[in-house]
Amino acid sequence: MRSPLVSLRAVLLLLPFSLFSCAPATPAPKTAPGSAAAPFLPSDELHWLRDSAEYRAISLQTYRLALEAAAKLSAGRPAGSWAISVDADETILDNSTYEVELQRQGQVHSDAAWKAWVKRGERLPVPGAATFLAGVQKLGGRVAVVTNTVQSLCSEVSANLRAVSLPYDILVCRADDGEDRKEGRWKSVASGTAVPGLGPAEILVWVGDNIQDFPDQSQSLRNQPESAFGDFGIRFFALPNPVYGTWEKNPPR
Ligand SMILES: [Mg+2]
To answer: pTM surpassing 0.85?
Structure first.
């Protein structure tokens, strides 16, 4: 386990990358103690995300509960009149191989490396995501993927989603010079302007790995009482991401 001091140092090193991008930041690579020929070991966070039964269980559990919520909240609504919102990275698409490759090479996240990774189109689904998205469509809901991936990479995101059979109706990327807050893009889904001809669709359920994947939420929620988390488990469903996120801005306690 890394010490808090080491963790803080990694956070500070990675802050310039992680504050302004949806793309992953990467902790410093670890190597097994001993010789230079020691085998590569990913960071603890990445190891847990990729290799633990717990992560897979939490992801499947979250998506099952989210689908139950969608069924309950959409009862009686006409097909096509409602939607769910999912984030892309570490919510429905798994970028952990990108992280492993960076760590193995002793590199950190950069826009160029991220762009090259996205263009490869090799991202796999997060556990439970495919079943959830298909289930929502079967219920009559629209699947809206609202991501902070920039518009200039949106066609690559679309191709990757199709390649791994993650169904969606609406894909809204961030303008290349646009803000990372998603409220404006959610409004475009609700008003029907996100995809011309599709019509308005009220978003009933949100799934994401970052607190900003949920309307009007931010890291300040961390210090609020339990009652402030009332939407979680009801219409907001959060997935764990211990590798990167806006949480890195929070000072360690
Ligand atoms: Mg994400």
So the answer is: yes
